[in-house]
Protein 1
Amino acid sequence: MSYLTLLADILFVGHSLVGPSLPAMVEGGARLQGQEMSVAAQVINGAPLRFAWDNSADGEQGDARVILPQGDTKVLVLTEAVPVANQIEWNDSAGYVAKFAGLAWESRPDTQVYIYETWPSIKSSPGVVIEGDAGAGVPWRERLTADLPLWEGMTATANAARPDGAPLVRLIPAGQAMGRLADAIAAGQVPGITTLQALYDDDIHPSHQTLYFLALVHLSVITGKDPAGLPPKLTRQWLSRAGVISDAQAAVFQRIAWDAVTTYRADDTPRIEALAAAAPAAPVQTPAPAAAATPAAIAQPEPAIAAAPAITPPSTADLPRAITNPKLALGLSGVVDWSVQQPFLDVMKTARPWVGQLPGQWGGIEYETLRDGGYLDPNGWPTSLPLEATGITTLFLTDLPADAGMVAGRYVLRYAGAGAMKLEGRAQIVDGGPGLIVFDYTPGSGSVSLTITAVDAANPIREISVVRDDRLAAHDAGAMFNPDWLARIRGTKGLRFMDWMDTNNSTLARLQDRPKPADFSWAIKGVPVEVMVALANDLRADAWFTLPHLADDALVRAYAEVVRDRLAAGLRAQVEYSNEMWNWQFTQATWADEQCRARWDASDCWVQFYALRAAEVADIWAEVFGPADADRLVRVIATQTGWQGLEEQIFDAPLAVAEGRKPPVDSFDAYAVTGYFAAGLGSDDKAAVLQGWLRDSRQMAVSQADQQSLTGPARDAYIAQHRFDMATDRAATELENGFVTGQTADTLVSLLTSVLPYHAGIAAARGLDLVMYEGGTHVVATASLLNDDDVTAFFHHLNYSPQMGVLYDRLIEGWAALTPEPFNAFVDIYSPNKWGSWGGLRHLGDDNPRWQSLAHGCKSC
């Protein structure tokens, strides 16, 4: 397969009714309409979609399962073998449409998927018998109408599971168009063609003249343009002497094709949407265990609640629109059981590490003891229980706020193997059986608790998944990511995976210990690199990886190879060694200090050792990517933004250069800084000022309530709503320029006029791109204010206030004036607490002025 074949804008998957010629004619026609599009095809003659999926490597012109993951396909055209009723009955046509569509959407969610409706044998008529075709006795023209619902029905499974934002799977009504063409021939309206047979080379395959007509039908659907005026010849040469078309014939073909498409598409959407809505949920498929579990071995739900009504998840239709800011990147919040991000369809991937339960207490046996004691298999599933334990427990869906949109619903827990388990906490069990528990969940304080109390050593419980029931079909088709989450962050230009990789304080060093897709949870060692790349491909976003500070060369190289091979064309990989190696609150800084002291018998040299190892990591990635892919790789070196001059030790690392090494700066493409501002509001230095603002602000709210003669609950509500008004205005002014206290350090103005311009100058002088690794509000309580509930409540209010949105507008515009690289907000979604208000969104259903600025700001970009 040539490289060019992998760059298809339009991809056909089909058989001889696609043939070698139709794709080329569609490509030629689009070019003549002013749209340059490359068209490729996977053609296996006679193949139903099931065979095309299972044997894609045998495609005569291409392999869809290789092409689609590249993420370049804008239009996917699928067609089923005929007779179509046979394929639907025996070959799961709708399921295989969903498989191909799901593969396309995984790499490019905006791919438009079409089903190319074909036609039955023209021999079809009363009294005719065709082997294997039960509908042969129906007249051909009537059969086109009768078969149309079968073709439309193939869309249902894919449409029911398509990700948010993906276009509806629809038909290219070629069969209906052929019927109209036959009607025109019968009416004597097609010059030079007088019989239906003239359209075919046999009873099923179209003539070369008919291929021109079919190309027009495809073009009418795909481009949305009337084909009128196209020349009779769409390719450089006629397909054959018999395929020559006159201008008069071309004009009639164009009119009929356009009329057929516009008539069909005038009312197809409601029918197809109704089919998707009526599509049954994917059947719950319990993996077959090696030995069947006995009924007594499975904890069963109480029959009395089996008929409880399902909780209907809220519609995604009311969510704010996707990100339109062309210069926004996002750091992703860490994967934990209490994450409001909820990134995965399988909630089990966010589960807490197992803890062994000792009698009479919670816990008592840590995950590391279970792992090191041989009680868990390499993927983390239990193989046995400690003799002293009553069970092992994990938690998920923990402490999610009551207003955490899109999380409530009915969930299905499935597993393989035998044993006993119980589901407690916020789970309300409604059904169950061997390998299956169905439960309802509403967010709130507490967790869903899963405890395994017995394990069959010969067939232990494993492969547990927890998926909302309306997402089972998508999950079973291979989808990984929660579409509600994707819908909130789609449009971001980049993703930084620092928290997903569990970078800070990481203990990961060896390749064999890295996170793997089969791990029972990705909340223990971090998210596998394959999953991070899949997300970047899905969102069409650059991917920023932060390699653990202990990582050996084999681990570094393996990550680079996965990213090189799997990251979609057109996306950049950004690689950084660890995170904030200068920051002493993380063990990586202490470790670097130990290494430099041992290596050079020197002090204050930790950032030089950081630079040395960072350069080695960057060089490994550069070697793996090679010159051919060098433009896909950005090697990043970072500094402490507030310590001007520290970057010189990092860039030049004289102790490393004294070993005969090149200066570390030579190994990098980009220089990373932060874009934070806080004006010291959470520090002890301003504690008295801040607390005074809060007293004054509340007193003003009280006075205003009294002036309005409010009493009782109305007075209390007014005060609660307005108690931070004055303080918010004062804090916003202080954050912007420090004018309230006269202290300008760490303000937005200082950041934009002094700190960031300094680093922009450094980057330019060193020939590096200036990039941001984190940025935004850093207003958080510290020291004596950390446990002050009033301060915490105020900071939560301030960080999502309209005033903060205005400050973000200025910050984002100011950054864009310094560099073309995106503003990197820390983080996407995070529930505020006393440790910070880091999320642009507070939960999946949130909207706020700060997020509006991030998602839709940078008007000058």
Note: Residues 687-707 form the longest helix (21 residues).
Protein 2
Amino acid sequence: MSIKVALDHTTTYTYDTPVILSPHIIRLKPAAHCRTPILSYSLTVAPKEHFINWQQDPYGNYLARLVFQEPCEELSVTVDLVAQLDIINPFDFFVEDSAENFPFEYDELTSSELTPYLQTSPAGPLLQKWLKSNRPARQNINDALVSINQALQRDIAYRVRMEPGVQSPEETLKTQSGSCRDSSWLLVEILRHCGLAARFVSGYLVQLKPDIKSVDGPSGAAEDFTDLHAWAEVYLPGAGWVGLDPTSGLFASEGHIPLACTPQPTSAAPISGGSSKAATDFYFHNRVTRFDERPRVTLPYTDSVWESVLSLGEKVDRQLEQDDVRLSMGGEPTFVSTEDLESAEWNDAALGENKLARSAELLNRLRDEFAPQGITAFAQGKWYPGEPTPRWALICHWRSDGEPIWQDTKRLASPGDGGCKIEDAEKMLRSLCEEFNIDQSLIRALYEDPLYHLHLESLLPPATALAELDLEDGDSRARLLQRLDGGLDKAVGCMLPLEHDGNRWQSTVWPLRREEVFLMPGDSPAGLRLPLDSLPEDNSIDREARAMQQDQYDPSKPLTQHKNLESQSINARKKYPKESNTVSTHVIRTTLCVEIRDETLYIFLPPITSAENWVHLMSALERACIAADVRPVIEGYEPPRDARLQSFRITPDPGVVEVNIHPSFTFNDLVKRTETLYKAAAECRLTAEKFMVDGRHTGTGGGNHVTLGGPTPADSPFLRRPELLGSLIRYWQHHPSLSYLFSGLFIGPTSQAPRADEARSETIYELEMALSRLPRGDAEMPWMVDRLLRNILVDITGNTHRAEICIDKLYSPTGPAGRLGLVELRAFEMPPHARMSVVQALLIRCLISRFWNSPYTGKLVRWGTELHDRFMLPHFL
């Protein structure tokens, strides 16, 4: 997106007595080859009594020759121009085949025409030394020029020098500093000594304050700035004159406006002339002003527009609170790498080492911002067909009441920290047994199964080592070698069966046929490879009751304060003797595992059915780790869904990382969290935008799904008043622009968020019947809205999750995990700027507020083929 700027440059000479001015040459008109469009230009000279003659010098530069008629006490030259700063790629050129690599020779005709630009002065000892150290070897010409330019920028410090003239190359190298004109003349001499035609350029440099500060480099000008500047240009056959700025070490782009380009600096001076003898005061002024500044992805809204957005958001918030809507808004924004644009993990693959490292960094940054008292955990994520293991998931949990889960988060490790042995795992579990008053003999060591590896060895021909077995893929070979290096007779971890009966923690003996606990083959955490099938079956009703999560519709009291959790363990130890904490009526399958991987201690949490018990377990684990003097990494099962606990997670998806951000209950919270997320992502070298091969801008491809609900499932506005969801469905169906304006490139019935009317025409009739039966006003049966719409809001395969308006977590019949009171809008692509995301969310909040008081009714529209024929056109969209 272009920005128009007005440049005002004034130079004034004031004399203490009237002087006679000689003819002056002014070189302040943009050159003919200037790539930045100049929309208007004016030159004003005082005194007004003068003759002006516009002409071109031998090198094609515009110059004004002024002849003054009368003596004067002041000479003023003012340039006003308007430039359109369109983004220019400085490498957008081709070179002839003969000039693709450095060094090269010009053909005879070109060399004769470039004679003034190839003439060199004798190289002094310092210049010879610099050329010997920095002359590029044979390589691509672009790389060679970048190397020379950046080496010079690194060696020569910039300083403001008001003295007239240009330093010699030897003087600049000796002082290792100089003005822009000194560095540029040195660069011209260096290029000529390398056999390249080069010329000196005098011009304007326009630098605008960047909308976004750079993460890993200089951010540029702190304010909009312009000044006279100097740089060099080198002639490349096929490309023409290419600008190099040694002051910044960059190639010239849209901010470089050339005025005069000559073989020698003296013939490129902005103003040349003389006067009779007099004392002279010199004054100059440069100013650049933006106007006609259009919205762009880095600055989508002006400050005034943004203030009006915030004001509207607060107004909508007051209305929602007055109406007791209890709306919460979360989301699933996605990001891609800013540095690695080509590898599979940032295009179509879900997993990759760089993606995991970036996600871990983002997790820690967001935890510091959102939940300083939170605890990070590494868990198993989704498992898709064709993938050998489940994907990872990085999660941060914290308590809604602000109490800590883990008092000292510095005592939590990160993968690869190292320094732990199997003895540390045993010591930690013994400390936990003391905490819960459980018999330490119930702790069992975990081993890799030697029978599996013996089976692999039996497949080998004689005299062949097991490590040489040619397995089907590299991952299998790596896992096998890791097992062999560690030794099959050594324990890899420990386990403790653990279950809460409502009053205290209990454990049990695992009755196995084999004396030791041998893990299933694989490289997943030990907690996922336990031989559970070797345990006696337990089909009792009690087992189902023990495994059932607490329904979030049940009223819950506040969680116990962190400082009182230890006293719960103390009271349980006093009340229940150790032998009573060993269960004999059934076998406890939920097992806490402590494993050593890469010398790092991992605690695998078993599934816990209540938030109260999970918080208690985490507190006990912290005290056990302190007693054993170890720093663990937490992994395993997540805590149960509970309004008293909050979390956000980072997971991999094809080509992106997805951040499941926790819900916001006010617009101000939504703004802060969205801006914080985008800022933290940028600091981790992640961005919310991509570019196609032809340069067109697009989103990440992973979407920016919006989740709507309430503080608890019972508070969800869609369950309390189902007609609100009906209004949302009707409004989206009536306005296809809402489906396509914010979407990505993938639309239609086979996309990840198809409209209900995109696949089957019969859906409209079925949807109308379902909407007509939605309860009006406050609903007494929260499951009704799910049963009416579950089989209609689907994609062509019947998948409830892959629909534009997704209700698979509204009130699922499968159990508490799907009864979250959430509606997900999936047709939103990832916007490149945080404020654009906020405005999208504000649009939804406005619609919810409107429909709460005035339900949106009316028959659904039969768009037919017009849906795509019409709304794919920008005019209608």
Note: Residues 303-322 form the longest helix (20 residues).
Protein 3
Amino acid sequence: MKKIYKRILSLGLAVGVIFSLQESVHICAQENTQTTESIFADYGDENGGETDTAEQITGTGAEENTEQTTEETETGKNTEQTTEETETGKNTELTTETETGEIMDADDTEEAEESVWMMYDGTEEPEEPDEPELDEGFHQDGSVAINEMNFPDDEFRKKIKKYDTNKDGLLADSENRKITKLEFEEKIQTEGIEYLRYLKKIVLTDGICSIMNSSSLEEIEISDAYKVDHLRVASFSGCTALKSLSIDAGIDLDAGIDFTGCQKLETLTIKEYMGAALDLSPCIALKKLDIENLYGKDRSSIAKLDLNSQQKILELSLKAVKLSEDFVLPKSVQKVHVEGVSSKKLDLSNYKNLKEFSVEGSTENLQLNGCANLEKLDIEDYYLKTLNLSGCSELTEFDTLDQDNLKNIDFTGCKSLKKLRISSGGLKKLNLQECSKLKELEVNAGKLTDLKLPEKIQKITFENLLLTSLDLSKYNKLEEVYFEGEAPKLEKIKCVNTSLKIFDVDRFEKLEKLRELDLSNNKYLKEAEFAAYGYGTYVDPVIPNIERINLSGCKSLKTFACHKAPKLKTVNLTGCVNITELDVAYTGVGSVDISKYKKLVTYRCAGNNLTKLDVTKNKKLRTLDCQKNRLKYLDLRKSTNLTNIELNDNELTSFDISNISGLGWYKFDNQYYTIAKGKKIDLAKLPGFDMSKIGKVTGGTRSDGGYGSVVTLTDKKTNTVSYEYDVQNGWYQTFHIKFENPDNLASIKKVKCTLNKNTYTYDGKAKKPAVTVTLKGKKLKQGTDYTVKYKNNKKSGIATVIVSGKGAYIGTVTKTFKILPKKTSFTKSVSVNAGEIELSWEKADSATGYEIRYSTDSKMKKNVQKKVITKNKNTTLKIKKLKNNAVYYVQIRTYKLADGKKVYSAWSKVDQIKL
């Protein structure tokens, strides 16, 4: 034995031999012989190394002989080991053939084995370990039994069994590796999740449960937690790898949530929480927190939220959360969203890391001063009164929506702000002078009376201004100005010598009180449109009461349009040599010298009472609309490019369009030249009249046997002579001459006409006020000297009386009187909710609509607000946003639209409502 032992040592095969000896002792016969890779393999190897099971090592119950041969590559020699074992384990003979062919018996083998073990580690041979339990925990090969002890929940165990591909009832390590994500639509208990060593994510869609002691789980999603009525505690303790937890629904807990061991949790979302204080102190790595609906033991109480341990948090979202007065945000936070949070004051002063902040809720005082890195701010808070943004030097854009109560804003030091929108019904002062980079501003402030802007502002949009005058002249970088709301007191606008390119007033929001507009010396301004024209229709202007417009020095101006402004008397276009479109129709401008506008293509001057018009210098003119004037002569012989002409309703006696070949649209009708007295006219003396072009004459006779130029009236019925005239190479147009007083009768137009009553109230019957007519103190007699007719005198609105001369008198005079719509009154006027009243009234069939006024002043002289209902079938109204604990007084009246004007009934009696 010693000889053999020394030979083994000399060849360096001691370990190899002991392996063979150890296997010979412990390996029993099996049906299929397996080769052992390493008896010292680590059973708990996390890198996936597979090990022999206890059954493979002990081989119990073997009934056949097993022969195992090991080929040793290093020596090139074979060692043959044979084990013969009976069914009962008796008569076991072990033989070993050595390198020299010597045979070792069993005793020699045990002696050699014992000696080698002692030489290997200096200790006695270790005892054989106890056989591990097969039903609980991990086996030595890393597998785990899929049974009720390891996975008590039926649904959970059922899901795990799907990964048991060989159906042996064990979850082998190779099978376990495939379980990285689990989803459950049923309520489950997750006991045994700790055995799923490679699980990264779990999704539960039927309520919350505790998930504990998972060292691999990184992400948990839970929805419909509200389906669980009540739990004592939800625990995620021991989930040491957990990074993200989302609970999408409600939690009702007594003891709260246990986050013990969740030191790596970075993202936490909880949609509704009710219970004990939310203890997040173990979550020291938390970076993103989203909480919605946080309550105490009931919805009226406060659940304490303490974030003092979360000094790495970067994003925070709080929705419908009642915060305690001592709540403090971590200074590390970079992005904050607050919605529906019950806190009168939010103080984030000097949060240097804060970059984004948005708020929706009931905060009255918001302090963001000193937030030097704040870049984005969004506020939707109706109750907000004070906002401090001083020192927010990186803020580039800010949008406030409908902050009706906002009264104080501090923008001091907001030097990076480029775009700003402010909507506040309570703001009276706005100072933006330190916002040196501000380029765009939208301001909706119905009470704003003091506005200071930065010098380099480029674009301004005004909505609802209370200013009486606006001077933008010192902002020489200003390029665009828009008016998109009411400005009920604005009378004067001045924007002189700037970079203005666009000046626009929304056609749906008129500047009713504007009287004067000075846009002179804006060399980049190309358009100044205050009215629109389309499909033959002049749309109502946006500055209907304007009196003076100055556009002198606007060298780039191409379009000016302001029609249907009857008070407009002066338009200064000096230096506007590039103008191509000019529209001053239906204004009081009168005659405009357009001879200097050589590039003019379109000219509209309809309805201006013009008697003269010279277009001979405007050779590029293509559209001319001068209808409804008093033009007696118009020379069109040089206007060869005209394509659209509207000359109808003038006093022209002739015109010549023989040089115009491309005429498309035209209107020439209703040319009536008037003769005040007498019944003769010499056509040859009319300007531009060519007797060779006259055609058929009706209602009169020509002198010289029908060939002369003098025409005498013969139609005493109409007092009108009509004739045809060749306007273009055989194209005859009809002209008319009206003889107003052929018999030199006295004109009734100079009479004094009075009505015995000027106002009636609608009752469905025709109204006929008595008429008195006097001329130079002489009372004329109805039926002899004049006749009377009534028009529109039954329905509510404006009725007309027509007095026509008769006998020795000629002409007509008209007078008007009002028929007021029937009054109405409130049938209900009550306070229904806080800050809200509800009104209803009787329908008035004779009215177009209703007007309601309300105030806290019983005399209706102070702070009066009005509401207009445009349809008479609407007989109810709710008025909101009123002061609580105040007394309001309300009245209603009806109105009728007549010729674009409102005729009002008397006011109803005053109703008193206490909120």
Note: The CA atoms of residues 248 and 525 lie 56 Å apart.
Protein 4
Amino acid sequence: MDEATIITREDYYKLAYCYYRNEKYKKAAKKFSSIANSSDRLAQNAYYHLGDCYLQMGEKNKARYAFLTASELKFDKQMSEDALFTYAKLTYELSMYPFNEAVNALNLYIEKYPESNRVDEAYKFLVNVFMTTRNYKDALESIESIRNLTGDIALIYQRVAYFRGLELFNDLQYKEAIDHFDKSLDNAKLNPVIKAQSLYWRAEAYYKLGKYKKAIEGYEAFVLSDGSFELPEYNLAHYNLGYANFKIKQYDKAITWFRMYDQFMENKSSERLGDAYNRIGDCYFISKKYDDAVIYYDESIESELKDVDYALYQKGFALGLLKDYNQKIIVLNQLLNDYSKSSYRAAALFELAKAYLIIEAPEMAISTYQTIIDEYPYSSYVKKAYLGQGLIYYNSGDNDLALEKYKRVVEEFPGNPEIDDALIEIKKIYLDMNNVEGYVDYSNSIGEYTVTKTEEDSLMFITAEKIYLKGDCDQAKGHLNKYIKKFPNGRYILSAHYYKANCNMQNGDEDEALESYQFIISKPKTKYTSNALYNAAKINYKNKNYKAASENYTELEQIADRKNVIKEARIGKMRCNYFIKDYEKAITSAIAVLKTDKIADEIYREAHYDIAKSYYAMDNLQNAMDEFMIISQDCKSREGAEAKFRVAEIYFKQGADTLAENEIIDFNKKMTPYQDWVARSIILLSDIYVSRDDNFQAKAMLQSIITNYSTRGDGIIELAEDKLEDIVTAEEAESMLEESIEDFEVVFEHSDLFDDAEVEKEESNNPDKQSVIESSQEKAVDSKEEEVQPEDKVEKNADEPKEQENTPEIEKGNNNGETE
């Protein structure tokens, strides 16, 4: 070899630049990358041209990071400005970067270069970002920082505030949602459709908060607003107006709105229509217009849409009040035959027995009462069934059997008011049998229920009850405590404990209330048992005593005879089992919830989430994946956002990194208010790139989070920093290993660096680049104080921003009309 030298960073830059001018972008990028490892003038040039190389190769993600780095190096101000603009534009075009990075980048450019001739273009991009973003929380903050909200920005503010309100609504933050709907309505004149939707969902939020009068005002304003008629919420508003009026006992108005819902409803197969028929029937029933009630219960029965068993029961009850007992028997038997698992079955049997008794079919009545006793031993109808049987036997002259039935009430249901009825009948039978001695012996045998003590018991309780019913809990508690102390097994002991517990709850003394509720629960079922179990469960749940709460909910589910109570019990049991990490039971409970009628969207989502997380905790990843995929379709909820991340995570754990990457990219396109899960997905994406030996991309992802993620204290930034440090450490170790294997000093002939014939040939094909190359080589690139200026601006090669095909359609919120 004639001559030897050492390759410097400046030599590498020359070579890279020659490749760049000759459009050999892959080779140029490799060389630019090798010298872009510092923070000097040469590095800025290298990053700038590296960005354009990636851009020419269609690798916009890598280009974006390179331009960002070039913009942060301040040696060439014009280059910094151009790089920042290109970075902002690429961020906008890619649209996969979360945390409103496009907004931040464009705002930064406008702030740094307010006099630039590109400011108008930057504002145009900014408007488009606001129009297409789904990161409504951060977008709203950015827009609110603008001093004058006029023109397009005001229109965007109306839209973004509305969608942020929907996010909060879906997250069950109803008060905050109302605030944002109000913000949107401050600009109501700009877009009548968004105005109408803001009115509707604000009314829904008021309804969820139990503010029914405000909900009614909102629904009515929506129905009368421009643009509402074409929206899918229009019919639903009539349905919800019916319910809101029903809640405040405005039954005539409720009937009107439910009937209007029926008239406007084109889809006659909707379950809500069947529910509306039942509610109209209920309104007439409560108003004692039983003939009209029967008509609408028939509408529900014939439609076969929803709660037909309820309609049959109510129709049978109404027929009884109309004294059409034979028809009542037919209808109730239809319910019992067609709906063998109906929650109204025990009540229907009791009404059927009463009807048989009225039409003088005592054997049928006794048999029906016995069905209740045998099939529903925990039902509140059992003691009434015994009383009914006792009455029939007494009327037929069978005193022994009558006494047996009445005595079972006294013995098996202590503390129940029905004991009074039973004792009266027992005394009557003994006297009819001229067996006074037998009555006295029986009376003495039952202790607390002797004649003298019973009278004192009654007087003492009645005094306490009167005070309680007047609402004077402070004074009532004293009298109730005296009664409980003197008659611990008194005939009204359960009523006393129940009243006392309610007073304790009212005064905030939940622990003392829990003691009384537990006393009621420990006794045979009464009319108080269901409420006692429900309240005990709530107290235990609040105190994080999930095991006890789960037991309360389990028992409540078994004894409840109303659908909404059964539903609450199943939901509570599901949550408790999940919290105590009894995952098998959590899965079973959640499946039971999913099989329950009329569960709200958020409960449906929660049930699938609990199943998924339970399988995940049990390391059953495939089953977990199936459940996560169900709720990952909607990322507007926290559960949906986490589910989307978990799907990608499981794919990655299973070695399907391409599927994992696709999930993450899709997640970022959909966006979500839960940026913590987006951040975790980006960190996961960096892991995927590391597994592919693409550290450049991985570092770009992690740096994006460190720079732009705004939340502090949740460990995400620290996680990103740790992973970035791991990558850098690994790269340094690899570099040291390479240096130990191969001498950095490379000997070569100058002719190997630049093949004159090859370069001349390339330049003859590209005469317009000749002067640029010469100029580049003449620069004193070996001095770090001197700059190598590119003659071509990257922007001429950068892709122009894509036109937005259409303004996205306004998102539709979920239907949230309530049913009972």
Note: The chain has a mean pLDDT of 84.
